[in-house]
UniProtKB/TrEMBL annotation, chain A:
Family: Belongs to the binding-protein-dependent transport system permease family.
Gene3D superfamilies recorded: MetI-like
Chief location of this protein within or outside the cell: membrane
Domain ABC transmembrane type-1: 72-266
Annotated localization: Cell membrane
A GO CC annotation given for this chain: plasma membrane
Keywords: Cell membrane, Membrane, Transmembrane, Transmembrane helix, Transport
Protein name: Carbohydrate ABC transporter membrane protein 2 (CUT1 family)
Record field: transmembrane: 12-32, 71-95, 107-133, 145-166, 187-212, 245-266
Any one of the GO BP annotations: transmembrane transport
UniProt topology in membrane: Multi-pass membrane protein
From TrEMBL, chain B:
ABC transmembrane type-1 domain ranges (all copies): 65-276
Gene Ontology biological process: transmembrane transport
Classification via PROSITE patterns: ABC_TM1
Domain of life (superkingdom): Bacteria
Protein name: Carbohydrate ABC transporter membrane protein 1 (CUT1 family)
Keyword Membrane: yes
Coiled coil: none
Membrane topology value: Multi-pass membrane protein
The keyword DNA repair is annotated on this UniProt entry: no
Entry GO terms, CC: plasma membrane
Length: 281, 292
């Protein structure tokens, strides 16, 4: 961090950051104030920023007009299945690619990495046809099963993250365990994983957010209302209540809030995550 | 050693199988589909390059390509530039560094559906935030996403709000710039500009390049805004490529034609990536030893 520089310069930088920050926060402020306003106040011009009174009814109204609790439950079921599958299979593959020696290992890892560049649209249609032909449409299967095969697509990136981390753990630990008669599975589970909490947390966070925000997947595969996720439910809500801005903003806020809370609690790991990706080189 | 090989394959098996089932397989299938005339429910008929031929004469295909390129050429330079400038500012050792980082990063966390709903309201011509503010300032208002000319610029504006991802990666890159070089420049009598031009910028080129490649590929595949906010309109002004592909495949059930669209996209993305990497040799600086 550069501490030199005059007071004037630092003040100037601070003012610039504050002005930019104000612009960034304004849409959020607009969201929150609209979520708490009734129709009498929301359309007043020039716009007001303080709800008077606070219209809590928007929340109860929005949340009871659609089965948002059901959507939340659906989302969480998918979350648990996807996050567990991704962490387990990606970490296993990374363990194999970084700490076990077998012929063709680097070639295969390199091949997998090319998948990162692939536009998702290329695999979209055949994958859909495939799930259709095994009768898995309108179930959680197409949204969760790929995660148990190292995520597929974006999963490669997680393998890369795990591998980068595993490469920093001393190999003597593995050798000592093997001398004691441990199997590779045992080394993975009892030696490597307990030392890898930082990278596990990073992958869990990114995967969780990815599932929470995913729209196209649920849109393609889920058709009955009782199976909708929050993102899909919100989109449906939006097309039904086009002019009910108070309702819409309240529902949006409910979908956004958990992610922001998670971010605030786990902020430190986000930064580590970006550093871990090793963007240099 | 034999056992180690067996374990190696076994533990990597889910990843390898996943790659075969969910990447390689569908890719090949997609290529086959693209050579057929196939509507869902009817048998597929092999028509060779017919779809590709039809594509070349499809005005909506060219329109979607145009619109998507326009959008990408707007979003990528803007997010990179704003992200870089803000990262430099946050890195100046001002008070509340963590707070600034959080504020600027927050929009990238908002689910696309939620941010789309929010921005529809912000763009609302009658009661939305932007026009309200313009009216208050006595400036002419805009029809934003509801105007044919202003729809794509509006979406570019909205996407630039999410520059936080590029910024955080720039911030991580800035930590890798060696401090002693700044001192070397100072000894040679160089000022702020010399420090930036001869130290910061060269050391940041790999990070800029990373953001450029991932940003371009990601932006080119924009879908959610077109689906939720504009439905490709008005008058196809936001008929983004993936949105067109989606309607062809899942609304019109033209699986063959949509697969041809997908393969053309694949080739486009491949060409862009290769060109970017080729061009990178001329301006991306890698430290000795760090280059592979």
């Amino acid at each position: 961090m550069i501490r030199e520089g005059s007071l004037v310069r630092r003040t100037a930088v601070w003012i610039l950051l504050a002005a930019g920050g104000l612009i960034m926060v304004t849409p959020f402020a607009w969201l929150v104030r609209s979520a708490f306003m009734d129709d009498n106040q929301i359309f007043v011009s020039p716009p007001q920023w303080i709800p008077r009174p606070f219209a809590w009814a928007n929340f109860s109204g929005a949340l009871s007009s659609q089965p948002f609790a059901r959507y939340f439950l659906n989302t969480m079921i998918i979350e648990v299945l996807v996050v567990t599958g991704t962490v387990l299979t990606c970490a296993l593959a990374a363990f194999s690619f970084s700490r076990l020696r077998w012929r063709g290992r680097n070639l295969i890892f390199g091949l997998l990495l090319t998948g990162v560049m692939l536009p998702y649209a290329v695999t979209l249609i055949p994958t859909f046809v495939m799930w259709g032909s095994v009768g898995a449409l309108d179930t959680f299967i197409p949204l969760t099963v790929p995660a148990w095969f190292a995520g597929a697509g974006g999963g490669v990136f997680n393998i890369f993250l795990f591998r980068q981390f595993f490469l920093t753990i001393p190999y003597e630990l593995d050798e000592a365990a093997y001398i004691d008669g441990a199997t590779p599975w045992k080394v993975f589970w009892a030696v490597i994983m307990p030392l890898s909490k930082p990278v596990v947390v990073v992958v869990v966070i990114f995967t969780f957010i990815g599932v929470w925000n995913d729209f196209l997947g649920p849109l393609l595969y889920l058709t009955s209302d009782s199976k909708f996720t929050l993102a899909l439910g919100l989109a449906g809500f939006q097309s039904t209540y086009t002019a009910q801005w108070g309702f819409l903003m309240a529902a949006s806020l409910v979908v956004i809030l958990p992610i922001i809370l998670i971010f605030f609690v786990l902020q430190r790991y986000f930064v580590e995550g970006v550093t871990l990706t090793g963007v240099k080189g | 050693m034999r056992a180690e090989r067996r374990w190696g394959w076994l533990l990597a098996a889910p990843a390898i199988l996943g790659f075969l089932i969910f990447t390689i397989g569908p890719m090949i299938a997609s290529l086959f589909f693209s050579l057929t005339d196939w509507q869902i429910g009817a048998p597929a008929r092999f028509i060779g390059l017919g779809n590709y031929h039809q594509l070349a004469h499809d005005p909506l295909f060219w329109k979607s390509l145009n619109v998507t390129t326009y959008y990408t050429l707007g979003v990528v330079p803007l997010t990179l530039l704003v992200g870089f400038v803000v990262a430099m500012l946050v890195n100046q050792g001002v008070r509340g560094r963590g707070l600034w980082r959080t504020i600027y990063y927050l929009p990238t966390l908002v689910p696309a559906v939620a941010s789309s709903v929010l921005w529809i309201w912000i763009f609302n011509p009658d009661f939305g935030l932007l026009n309200s503010m313009l009216r208050q300032a006595g400036l002419p208002t805009s029809s934003w996403i509801y105007g044919e000319q202003s729809a794509v610029p509006s979406l570019i504006l909205m996407s630039t709000w999410g520059f936080g991802n590029a910024m955080v990666i720039f911030l991580a890159g800035l930590q890798g710039v060696p401090r002693q070089l700044y001192e070397a420049v100072a000894i040679d009598g160089g000022g702020t500009w010399a420090r930036f031009r001869h130290v910061t910028l060269p050391f940041m080129t790999p990070t800029i390049f990373y953001n450029l490649v991932t940003g371009t590929i990601g932006t080119f595949q924009v879908f959610n805004q077109a689906y939720i906010m504009t439905q490709g309109g008005p008058n196809n002004a936001t008929e983004f490529y993936i949105y067109y592909l989606y309607t062809k495949a899942f609304t019109d059930s033209e699986i063959g034609y949509a697969s041809a669209l997908a393969w053309v996209l694949f080739v486009i993305v491949l060409v862009i990536t290769v060109l970017l990497f080729r061009n990178a040799r001329r301006w991306v600086y890698y430290e000795m030893g760090a280059a592979r």
